[in-house]
């Protein structure tokens, strides 16, 4: 039986041709395809600088370093995210804390954030960076978070790994109107793919320069940035401790090709979500709620089981659907419940809205090539699991 996954890439002949063309060219990496991809995404998002890297995890790391996150500093994010949104702080030797979610959007709750900031101010432990995560592709309440950043003096990295193609107050996610840096992911389950890959976006030229160095060993060939005149035409200088976080030209060519279909992908995701909304309306599940200012990228379609109205458990519903070839998933296990984070001192009960969400959430299959027949199969199986 063919499994219907929760997400998957769409690779067309034109994508394959674009990658093969690079394979036959002079540059497999550090060639012209990477800047082309960066310019394509920067133009789409309406942002001044875009730097491609080999994953969103790397993007988060260099974003934190560029904002000078270091030992003794704090980074706050949502517990309902992939672990990478929090791990980036630990890479820099900094501390992590979490802000509970809004029970309607499942994104970081600005009211909870304000309350926690007031408490942190009293004990002198304000965060240096806050990382709002646009869960499922739905933008966070960025205007509210941005207002708080002015009042409490923190920097903002948007984790938009789910959200390219989405809009906030009518403007594209990634324009950094309410943040210092935005991070994108191009993993195959995400909205567009480069196999592995990510990007940092910013309107701040100094941050862009810093991240460009960090992406490639901290090495510059720009004489203006060197400590003395170049020794000769071969010369370069390492002026920071950087990494090899570069994206290849093969991947960038795939990204450029995928970008031509981005709007169609997101539109198709909205069609499928609308259809799910209708087909699931009678079931004992809570459907996704749309934040008024947001047009979601719709990376995920998450329903929450109304456990009081059904006889089966959350795990039994998962088991039932998986046995029938429906590749449902759960995004995410709250980060503070991971063993590694428990060793840092976090414990169950700290973020109750996130833990309630975790007890009820199911990601249903959602990707542009999902057919209506497959979607009917998903809905039929869910009816069976909920015995309706
Ligand atoms: C996928 C994802 C990441 C990490 O992306 P990679 O490109 O796989 O490193 C980070 N944050 C969120 C919210 C994600 O979904």
Task: Please describe the structure with a list of short key phrases separated by commas or semicolons.
three-stranded antiparallel beta sheet; Aspartate Aminotransferase, domain 2; 13% strand; Aspartate Aminotransferase, domain 1; alpha/beta; 37% helix; 2 domains; seven-stranded mixed beta sheet; binds pyridoxal-5'-phosphate; 13 helices; globular; 388 residues
Summarize the structure.
With 388 residues, the chain is an alpha/beta fold. It contains 13 helices and 15 strands.
Please explain how this structure is put together:
The modification N6-(pyridoxal phosphate)lysine is found at residue 190. One of its GO terms (biological process) is polysaccharide biosynthetic process. The protein is an alpha/beta fold. It folds into two domains: 4-259, Aspartate Aminotransferase, domain 2 (3-Layer(aba) Sandwich); 262-387, Aspartate Aminotransferase, domain 1 (Alpha-Beta Complex), CATH 3.90.1150. The protein has 13 helices and 15 strands. Strands 1-9-8-5-4-2-3 form a seven-stranded mixed beta sheet. The protein has a three-stranded antiparallel beta sheet with strand order 7-6-13, with no helix packed on it. Helix 2 packs parallel to helix 8 and helix 3 (56-66) crosses helix 7. The longest helix has 18 residues, at 262-279. The radius of gyration is 22 Å and the shape is globular. Bound molecules: pyridoxal-5'-phosphate. Pyridoxal-5'-phosphate is lined by residues 55-57, 81-82, 84-85, 133, 159, 161-162, 185, 187, 198.
């Amino acid at each position: 039986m063919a499994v219907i996954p929760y997400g998957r890439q769409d690779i067309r002949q034109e994508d394959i041709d674009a990658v093969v063309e690079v394979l036959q060219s002079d540059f497999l990496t550090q060639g012209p395809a990477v800047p082309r991809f960066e310019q394509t995404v920067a133009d789409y998002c309406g942002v001044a600088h875009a730097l491609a890297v080999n994953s969103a995890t790397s993007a988060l790391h260099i974003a934190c370093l560029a904002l000078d996150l270091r030992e003794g500093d704090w980074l706050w994010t949502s517990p309902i995210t992939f672990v990478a949104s929090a791990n980036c702080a630990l890479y820099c030797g900094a501390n992590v804390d979490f802000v509970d979610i809004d029970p309607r959007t499942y994104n970081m709750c600005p009211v909870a954030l304000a309350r926690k900031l007031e408490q942190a101010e009293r004990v002198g432990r304000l965060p240096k960076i806050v990382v709002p995560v646009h869960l499922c592709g739905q933008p966070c309440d960025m205007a509210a978070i941005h207002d708080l950043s002015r009042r409490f003096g923190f920097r903002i990295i948007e984790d938009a790994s789910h959200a390219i193609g989405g809009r906030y107050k009518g403007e594209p996610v990634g324009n950094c109107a309410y943040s210092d840096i935005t991070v994108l992911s191009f993993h195959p389950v995400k909205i567009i793919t480069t196999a592995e890959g990510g990007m940092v976006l910013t309107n701040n030229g100094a941050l862009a320069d810093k991240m460009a160095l960090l992406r490639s060993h901290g090495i510059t060939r720009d004489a203006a940035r060197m400590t003395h005149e170049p020794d000769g035409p071969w010369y370069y200088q390492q002026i920071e401790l950087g990494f090899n976080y570069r994206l290849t030209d093969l991947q960038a060519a795939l990204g450029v090709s995928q970008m031509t279909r981005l709007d169609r992908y997101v539109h198709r995701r909205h069609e499928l979500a609308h259809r799910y909304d209708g087909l699931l309306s009678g079931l004992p599940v809570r459907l996704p709620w749309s934040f008024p200012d947001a047009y979601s990228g719709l990376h995920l379609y998450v329903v929450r089981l109304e456990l009081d109205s059904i006889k089966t458990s959350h795990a039994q519903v998962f088991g039932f659907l998986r046995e029938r070839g429906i590749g449902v998933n759960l995004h995410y296990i709250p980060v503070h419940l991971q063993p590694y984070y428990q060793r840092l001192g976090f414990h169950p009960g700290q973020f109750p809205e996130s833990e309630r969400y975790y007890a009820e959430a199911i990601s249903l299959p959602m990707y542009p090539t999902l057919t209506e027949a497959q979607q009917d199969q998903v809905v039929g199986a869910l009816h069976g699991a909920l015995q309706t």
